[in-house]
Write a sequence for this structure.
């Protein structure tokens, strides 16, 4: 929680001190087009970036230097990237309509691309236990994927009336929240794929994030 990373159209990635708001080190450069997404590894030592140049790059947070070669394989520009909870895999979403999984240690694709969306894939996130990946798309659907097999889990979740922008799991992994250009946030039951309750009315939704789980109590008292 001490650093903030930013992705920019100027093709750079910045690190910032969360306490002071000051930049930390030099901007990280190497992408050749707009940087769309950044994500810290679970241990905070590595940063992943996804760009319109169709590559994913890894960066050493301590030094600001690129780690290894860019990850390549997508055939259109990248929208989003997310680390698995154990830090071993990356998931990426792209305008080529696929989700791809990557081995962080080797930079190689982990299995075949996850295919099924019929339009650009906008968001992707691992479940808290790392067993599932959820993706959102301009085709107005959410899809769940089994990380071990690369196969879809259940049917696409439908209900939004415009392109989806972002999706996130609840901390316990039982629910999803999705945002859309239809001006709503919707909640979904992961086990059944069904919508929970009525849509939450917002305006144009660009990003969602769930609150972290509350720390376990050590005093035996209840949480609020």
């Amino acid at each position: 929680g001490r650093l903030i990373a930013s992705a920019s159209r100027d093709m750079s990635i910045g690190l910032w001190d969360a306490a002071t708001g000051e930049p930390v080190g030099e901007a990280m450069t190497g992408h050749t087009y707009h940087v769309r997404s950044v994500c810290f590894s679970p241990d905070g030592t590595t940063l992943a970036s996804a760009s319109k140049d169709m590559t994913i790059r890894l960066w050493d947070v301590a030094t600001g230097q690129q780690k290894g070669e860019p990850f390549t394989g997508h055939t259109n520009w990248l929208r989003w990237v997310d680390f698995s909870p154990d830090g071993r895999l990356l998931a990426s979403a792209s305008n080529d309509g696929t989700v791809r999984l990557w081995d962080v240690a080797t930079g190689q694709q982990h299995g075949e691309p996850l295919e099924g969306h019929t339009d650009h894939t906008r968001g992707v996130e691992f479940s808290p236990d790392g067993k599932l990946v959820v993706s959102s798309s301009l085709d107005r659907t959410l899809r769940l994927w089994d990380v071990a097999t690369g196969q879809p889990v259940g049917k696409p979740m439908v209900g939004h009336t415009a392109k989806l922008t972002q999706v996130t799991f609840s901390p316990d992994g039982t629910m999803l929240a999705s945002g859309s250009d239809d001006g709503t946030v919707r909640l979904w039951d992961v086990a059944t794929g069904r919508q929970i309750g009525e849509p939450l009315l917002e305006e144009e939704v660009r990003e969602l994030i769930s609150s972290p789980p509350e720390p376990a109590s050590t005093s035996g008292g209840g949480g609020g």
